[in-house]
């Protein structure tokens, strides 16, 4: 009985040590991460149309498909969670009470450390709506994805117009 208990303690200590090393590595390389490109396309059952800040309109029942190219340096795509953060926007264009959709890994880009992730958000209601891509660290042994204080948000040279749905 005592041997089994010692085994659990050693196992717990090993997991704790591995998580600590993983967290230190993520902190070291996080500044090398970047969201290089975000491509949005509207799908309404017909051929999809690329959406631009000059034509940011969706119709109810359509779907916003998003591809994001993320530079992860030498970190595996399994070590991050790439998400679409979306919701209604206020008069200043800030997303209020947003929701997240986890994006799925699609493929490596061909450049070392660059990977494509894909996700979609259905257009279910009218109004001003915003969307942004973000990256968080991801490890099954972590209790909270925010505990490291690391989050990478999509940035643009000029702020895109909110999407109007109607």
Could you characterize what this model shows?
The protein has 166 residues and is α+β, with helices and mostly antiparallel strands. The protein has one domain (2-165): Coagulation Factor XIII, Chain A, domain 1 (Distorted Sandwich). 17% of the residues lie in helices and 40% in strands. The protein has 1 helix and 11 strands. It has one helix spanning 2-29; strands at residues 34-43, 49-50, 57-58, 63-71, 80-88, 99-102, 104-108, 114-122, 127-137, 152-153, 163-165. The strands form 2 sheets. Strands 3, 5, 6, 9, 10 and 11 form a 6-stranded mixed sheet that branches. The chain has a 5-stranded antiparallel sheet with strand order 2-1-4-8-7, with no helix packed on it. A hairpin with a 5-residue loop joins strand 7 and strand 8. The longest helix is centred in the first third of the chain and has 28 residues, at 2-29. The radius of gyration is 19 Å and the shape is globular. The N and C termini lie far apart (66 Å). The mean pLDDT is 82.
